[in-house]
């Protein structure tokens, strides 16, 4: 029996994770602990973000591996998540948007790999607009009692054992899946707890909102330009926050589509396959939606590099299918 599906709104995240684990008689509790570690770091980062003071807002004056300006919170959140995963003990190796190389936690016995973007959309922090954390969890392929390997980290998205995001918005939310549907939890700051608020999220097959950076339209592939024209002819609404997690979350709940295709500025797209596209694609599919690079399924892609970019088209199934039609006309 799947206990978790029967759990009511208001169940604490901790209890939910515990009950989910009971559904797997041979589960060791390691993945459960890993999810708790992520939730702990999320609470700390939510606190840091809400401080909105000179220690947390503004640029760090350094660049990350992609040559992008690091915000103070990019650095702070990176440290928070790594520390929580290291101390929790269930993760041997981490891939982070903020670090060029693999991060080995020293937990060589641990069986999980995490790929994460600690703060996505961080250029929005200064103006008090929602940002997010995105994470993917894989089981290592290599033998335990050594650091995780590059091969452990370059697994196809289909191999994810869990994925999720934290949305730091008007409320902080943790939305995750272990491959049996998607559940969302809202953080109650005064109690310091995440509570189940969005059980078994199913995304509508069709929506009437699209999210993309339309300023780039002239350098989008022709199929995407034509799809955009179609959206306008259908009188869809344009909604672009410029924070992937926030745009994705809105579309997940209400129905809609987000796309960041290749463009002249970013020929291979902008989103990173390992810690942006794959985890959100996993969630989209678990909720009944779809994710492609315009044509091919994101989760089937074989990553070649840690920080590889990929065009992303994600959201309601019928809308993602429609893009493919325009791309292959
Ligand atoms: P980041 O990981 O450096 O924060 O970049 C990812 C962000 C997404 O959250 C957002 O959808 C996109 O970049 C916005 O890009 P643009 O300003 O080109 O529209
Ligand atoms: Mg990002």
Automatic annotation (TrEMBL):
Positions bound to Mg(2+) 1: 97, 117, 119
Gene Ontology BP terms: fructose 1,6-bisphosphate metabolic process; fructose 6-phosphate metabolic process; fructose metabolic process; gluconeogenesis; sucrose biosynthetic process
GO MF, one example: fructose 1,6-bisphosphate 1-phosphatase activity
Annotated compartments: Cytoplasm
UniProt binding sites for substrate: 120-123, 213, 240, 270
Enzyme class: hydrolase
InterPro entries recorded: FBPase_C_dom (IPR044015), FBPase_class-1 (IPR000146), FBPase_N (IPR033391), FBPtase (IPR028343)
Binding-site positions, Mg(2+) 2: 117, 120, 276
Keywords assigned: Carbohydrate metabolism, Cytoplasm, Hydrolase, Magnesium, Metal-binding
Residue ranges occupied by any Fructose-1-6-bisphosphatase class I N-terminal domain in the UniProt entry: 12-199
Protein name, per record: Fructose-1,6-bisphosphatase class 1
Residue span, Fructose-1-6-bisphosphatase class 1 C-terminal domain: 204-327
Originating species: Nibribacter ruber
Assigned EC number: 3.1.3.11
Domain of life: Bacteria
Cofactor: Mg(2+)
Quaternary structure and partners: Homotetramer.
């Amino acid at each position: 029996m799947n206990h978790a599906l029967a759990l009511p709104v208001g169940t604490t995240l901790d209890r939910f994770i515990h009950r989910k684990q009971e559904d797997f008689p041979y589960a060791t509790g390691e993945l459960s602990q890993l999810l708790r570690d992520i939730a702990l770091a999320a609470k700390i980062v939510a606190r840091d973000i809400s401080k909105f003071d000179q220690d947390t807002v503004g640029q760090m004056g350094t660049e990350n591996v992609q040559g992008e300006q690091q915000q103070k919170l990019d650095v702070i959140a990176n440290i928070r998540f790594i520390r929580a995963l290291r101390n929790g003990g269930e993760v041997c190796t981490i891939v982070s948007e903020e670090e060029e190389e693999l991060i080995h936690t020293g937990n060589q016995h641990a069986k999980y790999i995490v790929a994460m973007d600690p703060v996505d959309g961080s250029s929005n922090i200064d103006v008090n607009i929602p940002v997010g954390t995105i994470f993917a969890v894989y089981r290592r392929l290599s033998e335990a009692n050594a650091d995780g390997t590059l091969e452990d980290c370059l697994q196809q998205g289909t191999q994810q054992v869990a994925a999720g995001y934290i949305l730091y918005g008007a409320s902080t939310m943790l939305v995750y899946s272990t491959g049996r549907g998607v559940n969302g939890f809202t953080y109650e700051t005064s109690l310091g707890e995440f509570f189940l608020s969005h059980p078994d999220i199913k995304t509508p097959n069709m929506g009437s909102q699209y999210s993309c950076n339309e300023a780039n339209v002239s350098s989008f592939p022709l199929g995407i330009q034509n799809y955009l024209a179609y959206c306008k002819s259908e009188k869809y609404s344009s909604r672009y926050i410029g924070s992937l997690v926030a745009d994705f979350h809105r579309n997940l709940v209400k129905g809609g589509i987000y796309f960041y295709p290749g463009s002249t500025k970013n020929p291979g797209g902008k989103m990173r396959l390992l810690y942006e596209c794959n985890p959100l694609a996993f969630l989209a599919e678990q909720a009944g939606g779809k994710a492609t690079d315009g044509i091919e399924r994101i989760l089937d892609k074989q990553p070649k590099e840690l920080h590889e970019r990929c065009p992303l088209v994600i959201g309601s199934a019928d809308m993602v299918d429609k893009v493919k039609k325009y791309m292959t006309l």
